[in-house]
Amino acid sequence: MLRERLAAAREAADEAYKERTVYKEKMHAAYGSRENGVRYLRKVNNLHILKPDGRCSCGMRRGCRTAEVIYTHWVQSMIQKLDEIDKQREAELTAADFEEDWTLTLWDRYMNDDGTARTA
Ligand SMILES: [Zn+2]
Fold first, then answer.
1. Around ion ligand 1, which residues have CB less than 5 A away?
2. Inside any domain, residue 73
3. Is this model's pTM higher than 0.70 or not?
């Protein structure tokens, strides 16, 4: 009786763990998709920079419809957040001390730049 209950509890816990993993993967995929979308919006943003006289860097003299979309609060906010994320990632990579990573150190010591092993 107790053994059956323990087995059922274990099964329920395993099922919950699997479900959590599935949702976690879906969430990461969704974040990745959104990030890709915002990267494209940032590219479009850089092609449609409005000048003080109302002209757009794309060549439109007035009323660039793309700039109207790109300059909405949500799009600008997402681009700003992406810029901050990229800056943070770059800072983390700059701060990382790769010399402390023995695998990279060993790789450099024993491998040539073309990926072949050093002989001497
Ligand atoms: Zn434009």
1. 48, 56, 58, 60, 64, 66-67
2. yes
3. no
